Amino acid sequence: MTRFNAWNVLKNGLLGQSGWDRQWRDPEPKSAYDVVIVGGGLHGLATAYYLAKYHQVRRIAVVEKGWIGGGNAGRNTTIVRSNYFLPGNREFYEKSLTMWEQLSHELNYNVMFSQRSHVSLFHSPGARDAVARRYNIMRLTGNDDTELWDLETLKRNIPHLNTEDARFPILGAAVQKRAGTARHDAVAWGYARAADALGVDILQNCEVQSIERDENSIQTLTTSRGAITAKKVGFAVAGNTSLLWQQAGLGQLPIESHKLQAFVTEPLKPLIDQVVVYGVGGAHFYISQSDKGGLVYGGDLDWYKSYAQRGNLHIVQDVAECATAIFPCVGRARLLRHWSGIQDMSMDGSPFICKTPLSNLYLNAGWNYGGFKATCASGWYFADLIANDRPDPVIEGHNLQRFETGAVLDERGAGADCKLHG
After folding, report:
1. Measuring CA to CA, which residue among 395, 309, 310 is closest to residue 66?
2. What is the rounded average pLDDT of the residues 141-169?
3. Contact in structure between 274 and 288 (CB atoms under 8 Å)
4. Per-residue pLDDT for 413 more than 70?
């Protein structure tokens, strides 16, 4: 694999880009591995990379039913932030943001991480008090990149924002300066090539079709490319977690799968230099501008359970209304494309990184809206759990047992909208 540096970029520019190697192999599956990670998305690839580099596990496979970057890894709005305040979540997402800041150097691959600020609008004195509490807790625990902007500061920084006759009057914003966006496919490719360079087998178009187990452990994964045995197995399959869990004969999980749509407009001249977010009165909206000029934005779930990866018109209309409520100037921008990712929504809005009832099975799931931003820390702590067979103190609370004890991590009630008839 060719290493990226200034000399190689210059040389290949002069040679018509003919000197680059394939970025990762397409190996045949082996019959046995030390660790198999089911799911070739961002979390699965990151886990494999950290297992190989920092825990010296040598026989690792990542099993992906499609192609790298074809699932939720390529179906999100690429926002990275750490403005959480509950113990467990706060340390976890701050660890992830710190890792994001060095990720391009770590992987020798430009993931296009842009720290352009996360600006969360507030619309009432009560909302201002709530975000002040959150951000004060963040500052008291070492995260000093947070600010509260009054309306005049907000106008200076985001001049196109509708602060005059907005549907929901804007009073100011809570801002995390180090937050921003990254390029989702670059992150997937960067982790894939880095893991492959350490000997990880990335098995694309390799769907797990059945799971054989005894009373205490998984014995064999039967895939579309043959049977594979493993000493340890990690599930990191986002919205399909419940299906795989049932294949393993483990019954029900406290998870529902929902569609979350995202949208991209035609390229525009520079308009929004931040991530802008708001949620009030039933509206939920977030927007940023990509390096190509397209406005990338999204809103609420479709609010019914589905494994589809296509969106529906009522959400298109709802999110477009949310966009024009604060940025009327985008009303005539043409929608280039939209899609859906499958979110595994846990009942309290926080994830699982934990051991399971089976001795050699480990679970990474329930990421709700937070999967992309969590990529680095998720891979780091999941790899540590698999390698050492015990959770790091930071993720001790991210287990299945929290629903038995009532020790839930309910950051803002953003879990699934449960229905008895679902």
Report:
1. 309
2. 92
3. yes
4. no
